[in-house]
Specification:
The chain is of the alpha/beta class. 32% of the residues lie in helices and 26% in strands. A hairpin with a 2-residue loop joins β9 and β10. The longest helix is centred in the middle third of the chain and has 17 residues. The two termini are 38 Å apart.
């Protein structure tokens, strides 16, 4: 089963003891504060789906000093399934990576009936969360620990974009984006492994690579491993892209290409692919790429097709594309692309 990316909490008799609207002096359940902090440090996102008065509930969360943990909290009188759908959409993650914890069997069943792929927990199991394998990521990188902050920064970007009245391209220019492509180093491998585990929509094969395998490829004379980072005036998106190329004589074969879906709206989805095409052409290489269809990576297939990759052959469940490099899309003018070409040591 997939790792859980977000835990969504009910409030009354779940996150805290007591019912707020009944006038109870609610108190956090024992150990909850440490559980929230540990999950946050593991890079697991947190949110709320509660039938409650929004202003009162938020006031209590602020008093407890834990309001900052929760992204896109849904505190209203809507069905829990509706609140969960909004959280999923806002976080841009799969419903099968969300866990919902609630003290009411009816609410858990209602959520499950609408979203059968979601994981639900009775509130009595809250102390067991930290020991659950799906809540213990295989990799915890620096980007993992910053994940909530990166979502907050992105909310600020989105608010600025919504308030901007000019053309979209002018807003993108105002972000002062810098996209850095560099040879992966050993200190990047934890994040690289995490990217192969977590990235689904813009992932060319869906194949996961372990830290040890990536280290072996990093040191291989017949492979190139590049990683990229995006920053703008609001902060860093973190390391959001990875590419693995196998060198086969005069052929560069892209074995893996992935890009975080969080960056799609910034128009950077094709930057890494354009870099590879430019680089292969400069070195007189033939460029090929593997594509393996998964449940969620149709967008990656379209990215290859729009970049003029044509099917060459099929090997089992892998489609091999080739590009004649006659048409290479320029980098978007509103993004500064920095190529840090560090040779292997």
């Amino acid at each position: 089963m997939k790792e859980i990316k977000c835990v969504v909490w009910d409030l009354d008799d779940t996150l805290w003891d007591g019912v707020l609207l009944e006038g109870d002096r609610v108190q956090l359940k024992p150990g909850v504060r440490d559980i929230l902090n540990t999950l946050d440090n593991r890079g697991i996102l947190l949110s709320i789906a509660s039938k409650n008065n929004h202003a009162q509930a938020m006031e209590r969360l602020v008093e407890f000093g834990i309001d900052h943990y929760f992204l896109f909290p849904q505190i209203n009188w809507n069905a829990k399934s509706s609140s969960l759908a909004k959280i999923k959409q806002s976080l841009n993650i799969g419903m099968d990576t969300i866990a919902f914890i609630d003290d009411q069997a009816f609410e858990r069943d209602e959520a499950k009936s609408v979203h059968p792929e979601i994981t639900v927990f009775d509130a009595t199991a809250y102390r067991e969360l930290l020991a659950m394998p799906r809540l213990n990521p295989k990799v915890i990188s620096d980007d993992s620990r910053r994940r909530r902050l990166m979502y907050v920064e992105d909310q600020n970007r989105q608010a600025a974009e919504a308030a901007y009245e000019g053309p979209t391209v002018k807003f993108l220019e105002s972000l002062a984006m810098k996209f850095t492509i560099s040879r992966a180093r050993e200190e990047d491998l934890q994040r690289a492994e995490e990217l192969t585990v977590r990235t689904n929509q813009l992932n060319s094969t869906g194949i996961q690579y372990s830290y040890d395998k990536l280290k072996e490829l990093l040191e291989s004379p017949t492979h190139h491993l590049w990683i990229c980072e995006l920053v703008d005036r609001y902060g860093s998106y973190g390391k959001i892209g990875l590419v693995l190329v196998e060198i086969q004589g005069d052929v560069w074969h892209i074995r893996l290409l992935l890009m975080s879906c969080r960056t799609v709206s910034r128009g950077v989805g094709t930057v890494l692919l354009s870099f590879l095409m430019k680089k292969a052409k400069e070195e007189g290489k033939v460029l090929r790429a593997d594509f393996r269809r998964t449940e969620r990576n149709r967008q990656m297939l379209m990215t290859y097709q729009f970049a003029n990759f044509k099917e060459k052959e099929r090997v089992k469940d892998i489609t091999v594309f080739e590009n004649d490099l006659s048409k290479i899309q320029d980098y978007p003018p509103y993004i500064q692309v920095i190529v840090a070409e560090e040779e292997k040591v």
